[in-house]
Specification:
- This protein is of the alpha/beta class.
- The chain folds into 2 domains: about 180 residues, Rossmann fold (3-Layer(aba) Sandwich), CATH 3.40.50; about 130 residues, N-(1-d-carboxylethyl)-l-norvaline Dehydrogenase, domain 2.
- The protein contains 13 helices and 14 strands.
- An 8-stranded mixed beta sheet has the order 7-4-3-8-9-10-13-14, with helices on both faces. Strands 6-5-12-11 form a 4-stranded mixed beta sheet.
- The radius of gyration is 20 Å and the shape is globular.
- About 5% of the residues have low confidence.
Length: about 325
């Protein structure tokens, strides 16, 4: 598929004609299932790809089940759900949404999905994922992005859409992008609000501070997002995390997409009040978290610039300690 503007047809009503975009969603956990489901419902040719057999089997049997923010549950069937990307063939768009620790492996498995005109996109949490994917599939093929959509994993093939938000995408090297505009239009048509940024790294850092302020606190306290805004103690911790990240971002020349970072993060807690952050979901499932790509990334970037980030370092270490003691907790100790 070319990345020019869609054709327009005239008649009694002027409407946009489009050929369904062939889209592979690699990684159908909480966020991947949400995107795959909405894009399929929007008329796109969607392939759900995952390494977990239970997820693929559930989608094959019952479709992608989404509990909408208003409470209704819908089931949407993608074109195909598979463990094997080679069954899919070359796509127009490859949306890569694995956990950050699995990014390189997922990119290697997804190489067969890329043809000369294929675009790749990731809206994963944290820093470093677009660069990791690009190193595998080739320069100039990957767009970066962020999303404020919140999705909670309920069971294989079933998620709760816990909070509607904007998706922002753009070229890794900045500037205008017809293909990014085309992808954003596809998302909007599917009901996933999206727009293009010509300076997407500002948006990536903007989302990073939201994740850095919310995720480790929820993972440690095991609280839903909204409760963090209700208590002075958790607000103080969030403030410390975000202010450190803001200092690092500004030292790197980042122009954050909001004037008050702490207010933005606390507002995000309220907007996604019922959501369990992805880091909390990982802790509850006794999985490795993405803390090294979020708070750990802020610590590393701060070290490069000579900026100390003790609150981020402390909470990252606490989350790592939780990860390393899952077996002790599972055996009945330290409860």
């Amino acid at each position: 598929m070319g990345w020019d503007n869609p054709e327009r047809a005239t008649g009694n009503k002027k409407r946009e004609r489009f050929k369904a975009m062939k889209i592979a969603v690699v990684g159908t956990g909480a966020l991947g299932s949400l995107y795959a489901g909405y894009l399929a419902r929007g008329g796109e040719e969607v392939y759900a790809i995952d390494i977990r057999e239970d997820i693929v089997s559930a989608i094959r049997a019952s479709g992608i089940r989404i509990v909408e923010p208003e409470g209704a549950e819908v089931s949407i069937r993608p074109k195909k759900a598979t463990l094997n990307p080679e069954e899919v063939g070359v796509c127009d768009l490859v949306l890569l949404l694995p956990k950050s620790r699995q990014t390189e492996q997922a990119a290697r498995r997804a190489r067969c999905l890329f043809g000369p005109e294929t675009a790749g996109l990731t809206v994963q949490n944290g820093l470093g994922n677009p660069e990791t994917i690009e190193a595998v599939v080739g320069g100039g093929r990957i767009l970066a992005g962020v999303t404020l959509n919140a999705s909670t994993y309920l069971e294989p093939g079933r998620v709760r859409y816990a909070g509607r938000g904007e998706t922002v995408i753009g070229e890794m090297r900045g500037g205008p992008s017809p293909r990014a505009e085309k992808i954003a239009a596809t998302f909007n048509r599917a009901g996933l609000s999206a727009h293009v940024s010509e300076e997407v790294w500002n948006d990536v850092w903007g989302k990073l501070l939201v994740n850095a302020g919310v995720n480790p606190v929820t993972a440690i306290t095991r609280l839903a997002n909204g409760i963090l805004a209700d208590h002075e103690e958790t607000r103080e911790i969030v403030k410390g995390l975000v202010e450190e990240g803001e200092r690092v971002a500004r030292a790197r020349g980042i122009r954050l997409p909001y004037p008050d970072a702490v207010k933005k993060v606390l507002d995000a807690c309220v907007a996604t009040a019922a959501n369990y952050s992805s880091m909390l979901q990982d802790v509850l499932a006794q999985r490795e978290t993405e803390v090294d790509f979020i708070n750990g990334a802020i610590v590393r970037e701060g070290e490069k610039l000579g900026i100390d980030t003790p609150v981020n370092r402390t909470l990252a270490n606490l989350v790592r300690t939780i990860e390393k003691t899952y077996s002790l907790r599972a055996s009945g100790l330290n409860k």
